[in-house]
Structure of ParB N-terminal domain-containing protein:
Amino acid sequence: MAKRKRLTPAQPGAFSPAAKPAAALAPRSGLGPAPIAQVAGEAAASAALADLAEAIEEARSSGRLIEELPLDAIDPQYLMRDRLEQDEEELQALMASLRARGQQTAIEVVALDPPQAGKTYGLISGWRRLTALDRLYRATGEERFATVRAITTTPDSARAAYVAMVEENEIRVNLSFYERARIAIRAMHQEVYDSQRAALQGLFAATTRSKRSKIGSFIPVVEAFDSVLRHPTAISERLGLALSQALARDPEFRPRLRARLREVQPQTVEEELRLLNDALADPGRATPVAAPSRPRLRAPETPALAERVTAHPAPGLTLRFTQAQNRIELTGARVTPELYEALQDFLKANTASK
């Protein structure tokens, strides 16, 4: 009886895309064509590689693959952020943790196709981790801080992306009612939702009906005072609801309080809260009190310290004007080199004779 040849296990790396079956590395000198077993083995190896590549791509698209991405490849303002302020002490604590233990939890990004302004990924959640790593890299220059662990997801829509951001922050950080109302407004401005009711139900579906109602009550407050408030996240639930009721009851309350905020320009949380409470108690009073406040880190898309006007001239375009800085900012998916050149030509043609 013929003796059967013993099969040996596959070597490490045998199924990598660059690997070739061992028998294919050297010609069979004078031995004629390869036996059918070798041909079958090569076909099986190719099929295994194809299956592996498909499995990796499926894991990436379904958000189960963690990758190392360069910090400068990620656009942190892909979505308008829901968090307005971040405590500086908390950020320093996060940076200390990253120094000691490295990044423990991946951020969430979406691939940009085509890339926008040199960025190939847009940030969905993980702004604090991305900011902390960026600070560490700028301060130390260490390569271990030059990349971030990220999960690439493929949201079904812009709605899904906003919901993912909100849910991640709802779990990790207790957002204020003001911040929740503000992101609902931003989502409506971006035409992600066509109504306030749809925005609240879509973004905060996991919360209770009473909580959604309270967030909705803060929406008029955000719309009325977002550009003139300096510490809006300090507004309590009770104060926010009182301000909302005052706006509904008195048409003159909004312009009166906006004028007072511009005139007094309260510098601390305590000053601003005192002014708001005084306005509710007596529209003629404004007696801010000085008190120290902790330093705050402003996240992207925060209200300006002076008047800021925001408009949406076309889908995919957001136009902002900040009066105190004499600054005009145009952002969005439709900002392209062609639009930049067209704006240059327009400005040259309309300012040459002035």
Observations:
- The beta strands are 62-70, 74-75, 85-87, 107-116, 119-125, 147-153, 296-298, 308-314, 317-322, 327-331.
- The first helix runs from residue 36 to 61.
- The two ends are 103 Å apart (CA to CA).
